Structure formats: C-alpha cells, structure tokens
Backbone:
C-alpha cells in the first residue's frame, strides 16, 4: 500500500518561503515514476506545480518556475517543495502525489497525500 | 498551455441517473486524458486514465471515451458515493493542466 504524507508549517508570512516535505511509504522514490506537487486554492480547482524524478531532474510549472525548488532525498524516501516570495495568492491546500508511468506510456496521478493547508498571512 | 474546458460546471442528479461530463482540450492530446473524483476535504482519486482505462478498484459504472480533443466521463447509474467533483487532466504535454471541475450534487 503506497502512502504519501505532507508535512510542514501551516502558516507562512508574506514574502517568506513555503517549505513542505512529502514522506513516501510502500514505494521507493528511487523508481521510474515521478513525484509531484499539486495545489488547490480554497474553493478553486487543481494546479500542477512540479514533478521530480529520482535522478533529481525536474519539470516545473512555467507560472511558478522562478519561485519553485523541488528536491529528493532518497535516503529518507522523501521529496520536498520550496516556494519563495509567497503572497496571499499562494494560500492553498498542497498535495504531493505519485505520477505513475504505465507500460503504454500513460502518465496519471495514482496516489496522493491527504493534503496540507498552507495559509500565507502576517 | 493546453486549455481544458469541462462542462457542465455543475449538475444535479438523482441516484440511478446516467451522468455525462465532457472535457474539451485546446489541442489534440490523443488519449492522454485522465479523470479524477474529489470529495470535499479529500485528495483527488483517479477513476479513468488514458481516456478509457478504468483504474483498478473503481466500479464499472464509470467509463471514459474520446480521443483527440473531445472526451466524456459517464456514470451509468449514479450511486450515493458518486456525489463529488470530477476533474479532467491532460498528460500529453507540460505544463500538466486540469479542467475547472464538474460538481455532481443531489437533485
């Protein structure tokens, strides 16, 4: 059973840096799948932020690219997100997810964390 | 970016109804289209991937069809557990984009 769990501060000050970690169990970060971050603003839809491969290679959303850093820690079976210079617009529930690559070359998010609400406020 | 247009944005239905949700993309994505179900306060859950493949464990009343730019999610006989918001998502190109969601609520 694959499980993902987000952790990190639930409150970040404007202009600060949002830092979250996703702990993975039941699967190895060091696999062919990708590991992703997705967020959902209150009452809004889903927004993809980034993917990271076990190698450390990343795909980043162009709209957030200048502020996003993602990294992987294979020894802890975790991956992390940092979002710099946050504003109230970054207030959202942040999910980590596994991006499955199946044998037909199809990508889909098959496992998700429960999500963590991060509020940007002074 | 590939734009995803879902319709309707919401619908009201009764248990036993056949429900159809559509998703149109701004460019041809072949079959790289996934559908997710999200209940309030929970993470999304994939129900259909690759436009028409049923995720293991998902009831067979869910089905997906389409290719290119036009896709459909159908629930053949709506059950109480199916009241939720449904999102389409394309995996053809970066950035990965989602539709704005369709909320299915009780009539």
Residues:
């Amino acid at each position: 059973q694959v499980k993902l769990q987000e952790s990190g501060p639930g409150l970040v000050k404007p202009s600060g840096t949002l830092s979250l970690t996703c702990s993975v169990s039941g699967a190895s970060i060091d696999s062919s799948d990708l590991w992703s971050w997705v967020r959902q603003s209150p009452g809004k839809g889903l927004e993809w932020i980034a993917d990271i491969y076990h190698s450390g290679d990343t795909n980043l959303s162009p709209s957030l690219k200048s502020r996003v850093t993602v990294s992987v820690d294979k020894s802890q079976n975790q991956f992390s997100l940092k979002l710099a210079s946050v504003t109230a617009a970054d207030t959202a529930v942040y999910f980590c997810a596994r991006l499955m690559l199946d044998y037909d070359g199809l990508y889909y998010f098959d496992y998700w964390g429960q999500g963590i609400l991060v509020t940007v406020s002074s | 970016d590939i734009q995803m247009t879902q319709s309707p944005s919401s619908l009201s239905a009764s248990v036993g109804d056949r429900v159809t949700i559509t998703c149109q993309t701004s460019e041809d994505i072949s079959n790289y289209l996934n559908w997710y179900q999200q209940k309030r306060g929970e993470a999304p859950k994939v129900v259909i991937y690759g436009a028409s493949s049923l995720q293991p464990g998902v009831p067979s009343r869910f089905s997906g069809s389409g290719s290119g730019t036009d896709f459909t999610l159908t629930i053949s006989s709506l059950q109480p557990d199916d009241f939720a918001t449904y999102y389409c998502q394309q995996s053809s190109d970066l950035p990965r984009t989602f539709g704005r969601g369709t909320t299915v609520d009780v009539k």
